[in-house]
């Protein structure tokens, strides 16, 4: 889910802290005392509550990896999550900061509120373990969420976290991979260190980030229109983060598009091109009238035409092995 786009400004202090932590761990590993030191620190630090330091909380998260496959985090909003200790992206961010990627949703919901169309229902496609749906409902940003997640372990924690937060009647989970057909069994490749980067694997044009080494599982498809037959423009928002599979999701969502429901998609050129869906994604953009680039500081609707699309799709750097992925998120609107 979380990746860094071209306009994302990374705090230099955070980078320095991450580098210090990395070198510290390497030195301890070389000396052969890494886990001994971690064990000592674990018993010291586990009794210290309310630590806000990114460095320290990141260290505590790493200390617990050899001990537990699952961890529990409770944030300042009294939101409880069971998270994966292997997950160095979503779960780690939740552990350190108490939330993941929620600012973009808050920004989007505020925009629609100011436009006289307050969002009440969120359709969260690629819901992971509930990191968007659960806080969105619990903090009163929306009234109800429909959370769709195909990966079995993510889905198990999604259901668990819904129950932990007493939201069984407000966050409804579905265990499918949304696509352009119903009830088809397709391949999904699993990331070993990022629970938000499991991807549907159909066509593969290249593997820059060592994806060829990933474990493959089977998941079942469903069309958006089959799950959500009654959806309209008013008070609804569709949030799609499916790691380059967004065009396939939209292919099964004709009612959604025709009924002018606002959609937020992740726009990740590498994943789209790798899956052979780049051209299809551009074609879908032209089926909407306006887009908003959420990486920009101000929300400014941009008319979809040849000029604006050319400006959007050109100028992306090529992704390199071991480097952050390059992406943005787009709100798509029909007049």
Number of helices: 13
Q: Structural class per helix/strand content? A: alpha/beta
Helix percent reads 25-40%
Q: From N to C, what is the helix and strand string?
A: HHHEEHHEHEHEEEEEHEHHEHHEEHE
Overall body shape: globular
Total count of strands: 14
Query: What is the beta-strand fraction?
Result: 15-25%
Give the uncertain stretches in residue-range form: 1-15
Which sheet architecture does the biggest sheet show? 8 strands, mixed
Distance, first to last CA: 29 Å
* Radius of gyration using CA atoms only: 20 Å
pLDDT averaged residue by residue:
87
Q: What descriptive keywords fit this protein?
A:
335 residues; four-stranded mixed sheet; alpha/beta; disordered N terminus
What is this structure's SSE topology?
Elements: H1 12-31, H2 34-45, H3 54-63, E1 70-74, E2 80-84, H4 90-97, H5 102-114, E3 121-125, H6 133-138, E4 144-148, H7 152-164, E5 171-174, E6 177-179, E7 185-190, E8 199-201, E9 215-223, H8 224-227, E10 236-240, H9 246-251, H10 254-258, E11 263-267, H11 269-274, H12 278-285, E12 290-293, E13 302-303, H13 306-313, E14 328-333
Parallel strand pairs: 3-4, 3-10, 4-5, 6-9, 10-11
Antiparallel strand pairs: 1-2, 7-8, 7-9, 11-14, 12-13, 12-14
